[in-house]
Each structure stands twice: as C-alpha cells, then as structure tokens.
Design brief:
Blueprint (H helix, E strand, L loop, with lengths): L1 E7 L3 E5 L2 E5 L4 E2 L3 E5 L2 E2 L17 E5 L3 H8 L13 E4 L11 E4 L2 E8 L4 H7 L4 H8 L4 E7 L1 E4 L4 E5 L7 H8 L6 H7 L7 H12 L1
Parallel strand pairs: 7-8
Antiparallel strand pairs: 1-4, 1-8, 2-3, 5-6, 5-12, 7-11, 9-10, 9-13, 10-11
Helix pairs in contact: 5-6
Length: 212
C-alpha cells in the first residue's frame, strides 16, 4: 500500500447551479513532505467545512485504481490524480477491503477510516458533468475519509502501513450500501453502530432507518 500523490488546493470559484461559489476542490499534486494536522494538510483549504474537512473528514482519499475506469467511462483520458478533489491518491486501499475504523501509518502520521465519501454537486462543476456525483455514488468507487489520530508529516511515495483493523469489519463498500439505500442492510447497520470511529451523526441517522 502506497501514497501515489498528495494533493492540496487553495480556494477558487466554481460555477454551481449558475452561481459562483468558493471551493477547495481544485487539488494539485505537491512535491516533498507536508505537515498533517487534525484538520488536514497544511495549505489545503475547504470552503464549506460542514460538508468537507473538519476533524472527521480531515483527509479525502481516492484509490488510483479507479482512475482508468473513469477515464474510459467519461471519455476523459486526461484525468489525473487530484482531479476528483482527493487529498491522497493511493495504491492498494480499495473500498471492498478497507473498513471503517481501520488504522494506518503514513510517514510519521497515524490516521483512521471514518466514512465513505459522498460527493456533492461541486464535483459535477469541477469535472463539467451534471450527473457525476450521482454516478460516483452508484458506482461504488466512492473513496473515503481519514481522521487524524496522530499529527505528523508525510509525502508522496510513502508506504501506507496497517496498524490495526476494526473488529466489526464494516467495509467502505458495505457502508456505501447503507448510504445508497440498498435493502437488507440491518446487519451492516448493527455492526457499523459499534465502530467507535464512525461519526455519531451517521450512527444516529442509520439507526433511525433501521428502527423504521
């Protein structure tokens, strides 16, 4: 497992539903080491911290393995790492294998998987396709978020080392089923509710679904 690209972005304007709004989705790869704090990478910005960033979504991660499929599906051969707004483009961390609560070390930092990514319409504006966020959601190629357990430094090319695996084994792919409203998800919700690192607001939301 390895980091192929570390991507950060400054605030820029994007046209969303005919209106100019600030966004930090325009990520570009950087060279050298970078500081990682509990709120994300030094020099990386998020315009709407209710939806992006914050302690529980400090790092957006996207598997490099999905890029070729999107290049073909979207007919965008020029798509490159960071174009989907991710902070880390990785090798060897796939949604069906990575579980909520799994912990890793990259460089001197330690991080934990908190939840799948649910892209908003800003991704549509970034790539120029009005239905991309919905296609992302349905594809299962969602990516996911890390929270920072221990602050430190890391860089592109660093190995990603497993520290511990959550005992409830709720994969990102499984939890995507809950998000997408797939039937027969009670077992997934039961296991997810025991994952300490799953944000409480998500636990509350899906326990309500279960109880109805």
């Amino acid at each position: 497992m390895k980091v192929l690209s570390v991507n950060i972005g400054s605030l820029n304007f994007v046209l969303r539903n005919g209106k100019k709004v600030k966004s930090g989705i325009f990520k570009k790869p950087i060279e050298g080491s970078i500081e990682l704090s509990s709120l994300g990478f030094e020099g990386d910005y998020q315009a709407n911290k209710k939806l992006h960033g914050g302690i529980e979504k400090a790092i957006c991660v996207y598997p490099s393995e999905h890029y070729e499929a999107w290049r073909n599906e979207l007919r965008r051969p020029s798509l490159s790492y960071g174009d989907f707004g991710e902070n880390l483009t990785t090798l060897g961390l796939l949604e069906h294998e990575v579980c909520l609560g799994d912990r890793f070390r990259i460089g001197s930092a330690e991080i934990v998987v908190t939840q799948p990514r649910e892209p908003c319409i800003t991704l549509n504006a970034r790539i120029g396709l009005i239905d991309l966020s919905e296609r992302f959601k349905k594809s299962g190629r969602s990516g996911f978020y890390f929270s920072v357990v221990k602050e430190g430094t890391l860089s592109s090319g660093d190995l990603i080392k497993s520290i511990s695996k959550d005992e409830n084994r709720v994969s990102v792919s499984e939890f995507n089923q809950v998000i997408n409203g797939v039937p027969e998800i009670e077992d997934i919700i039961n296991r997810a509710s025991k994952v300490n690192d799953l944000p409480q607001k998500l636990k509350n939301k899906f326990l309500k679904i279960k109880n109805h």
